[in-house]
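SGNH hydrolase-type esterase domain-containing protein
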Amino acid sequence: MNHLACFTPGDLAAASAPDLTSYRWRLLAQGDSWFSTADDKLNAHANLLQEMVYKEPTCAVNCAGKGGTLSHLVDLESAPDFVRLLSDKDSTVWDGVLLSMGGNDLISAAQTPAHDAAGNRVPLHLRLLRHQTEWGAPSSGVARYFSEPGWATYSDYLRTNVRHLLTLRDQGPSAGKPMFMHCYAVPMPRPAGAEDVGLGQSGPWLYPALKAYALPAADWAAVSRLMVFHLAQLLKSMAADPVQFPGLHVFDSTTVPLAPATPGSSGSSGDWHNEIHLNHSGCFKIARAWSEHVEAVLSGAHTAAPVKRSRR
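Predicted structure tokens:
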């Protein structure tokens, strides 16, 4: 098996640029902190790309970089290298695009408070959780805490942005090539943030949101599961619609068995480095399974295309 060889956009512009033609599969990657190459993130909780392996030699140009680029889908203006390499007519013909995104948007939606700074109630369609006075019947289980109007808003947002990414792909020489997204694993809401605020958010992320909404602690794990499974179903439904989302392939990470973090723990626990980031063992488990999914698609439905030198 061959570990995924990872390069940066800067590597392509260097005097000693890598020879991408020596690889069977050439991928373009962009995403959130699960793809980040920041040293503190790699040392702390790794990333999925560095744990991916393929039978055929495979490389990826990772545009996620060392910062928080594309922490949200609408931040494409902060990722000019990715947009250029994806849509520029003179760019490389990529065999596929790897995306890690949507999770931070879900967290942000869950963090939206029930009241704004002026004390006014935030409309249900603008948040994912319900205030105590809005909870449904106990017979509904943890779904009684969940805002379906807010989920509809989030779903429309995600669909719109993924369609935009597919449009960018089809503007360039990699038109029609597969675009791969992964679902997320189910985090345990707990007081486990990042050690370094340079990671973008110090965290924890879900834990204070669920506390602010006064959700019973006994239901926190189930609420987290509900939200992550909603996202997984949304992504899979998009991949099942080739008319609206041509060439989109989604890997269901929720099916990968992970060791959950211990409730109430504040450090690395199970397969989790902190509340929402996997540690090396967690990344290893999901990345190896996702690698198989990606290579099966590449091998079964697509052939390698000639490579053009990226414009410098």
